[in-house]
Design goal:
The strands form 4 sheets. Strands 10-1-4-5-12-15-14-13-11 form a 9-stranded antiparallel sheet. It has 7 helices and 15 strands. It folds into 2 domains: about 1-60 and about 115-200, Ku70, Chain: A, Domain 2 (Beta Barrel); about 215-295, no CATH class. The termini are far apart. The chain has about 300 residues and is α+β, with helices and mostly antiparallel strands.
């Protein structure tokens, strides 16, 4: 950073300064989206204003908890067992419970005192190849949007990342924790991805314990052929949340006093003969490639139903 501060144009001179702010409305694509952060991107003596927006949100049909007797939506009041009364939100403070069962109170001023520099300035610490970052570490995504006065230096950073095929690695503090993030060009802009730290990646009992498993060359060859027959260009628009679609249909049907028939599920059994299963899967994938659905034949469906009954 010393070279950058002296006016050099080294990439390590890039620095992004984020200022936490109240939720602000900003127009994107003709609509209003709340900005999560706003601040400045700076490198050397150049700085420009930007805003940070959540890039994605989970879409699902909300189902509320109701009283089974009167079908009234239930509320969860904050109850104090010591004072024996309902507590208002304005009376709530935060605290950490120690080993003695006592609480250490933490207020907003305490949080401000301990917020690191990354709470005000997000400096790009390094550059790396995207392929070097395992998707297991990915967390949330944000759009980095420049204000009108900052479009030119913003495009400079975006083009630099595109031409070098690199992503910027940085740290930022928000939501009362510090994140490692990476910045990458995307669809004529820059997106920021927060990442999990190494100590946040958990272990699963038995995961990776595959010693002693032997595969025959024929099994490997058939598996590779199956993968090749099902390979295609990835298009996220092909995939939809089928459960949420059916849930909306269920709600619409029940609003009209209709019932919805249960969806039949094929009975699945553990694979005993893997070679036979691979050959059948490959045959089905070939049928699907020629316009036939990748499902069992009608006779097989009737058999499975009889077996399940």
């Amino acid at each position: 950073m010393s070279a950058a501060r002296n006016g050099a144009t080294a990439l390590t001179g890039w620095r992004i300064c984020f200022i936490p702010t109240k939720i602000a409305k900003y127009t994107i694509g003709g609509g209003h989206m709340p900005s999560a952060w706003r601040g400045f991107v700076s490198f050397g003596l150049i700085s420009f204003p930007v805003r940070l927006y959540p890039a994605a949100r989970t879409s699902r049909v909300p189902l509320h908890q109701l009283h089974s007797v009167c079908h009234t939506r239930l509320k969860q009041p904050l109850y104090c067992p010591t004072c024996k009364r309902i507590v208002d939100r304005s009376e709530v403070v935060k605290g950490y419970e120690n080993e003695d069962g006592k609480y250490v109170l933490i207020d907003k001023e305490d949080i401000k005192k301990i917020t690191p520099d990354s709470g005000r300035a997000m400096e790009i610490l390094a550059f790396a190849k995207m392929s070097e970052i395992d998707p297991l570490y990915f967390d949330s995504s944000y759009f980095l949007v420049p204000e009108d006065a900052g479009k030119k230096p913003y495009v400079l950073l975006m083009n630099t990342l595109e031409e070098t095929h690199k992503v910027g690695i940085a740290k930022i503090t928000m939501h009362q924790r510090e994140y490692t993030v990476f910045l990458r060009p995307y669809d004529r802009g820059i997106v920021i991805h927060t990442m999990h730290f190494a100590n946040e990646i958990r272990e699963a009992p038995g995961y990776g314990n595959t010693t002693g498993v032997k595969l025959s060359p024929k099994e490997i060859k058939l598996a590779e052929q199956l993968v090749e027959s099902l390979s295609t260009e990835f298009d996220i628009k092909k995939y939809h949340d089928e459960f949420q679609t059916r849930l909306r249909a269920l709600i619409a049907a029940k609003e009209k006093g209709r019932e919805v028939a249960a969806i039949p599920h094929p009975k699945r059994a553990p694979v005993i003969d893997m070679m036979s299963a691979l050959k059948k899967s490959l045959a089905k994938s070939g049928a699907a490639a020629h316009g036939h659905p990748l499902h069992a034949k009608p006779g097989a469906k009737r058999t499975s139903r009889r077996a399940a009954s």
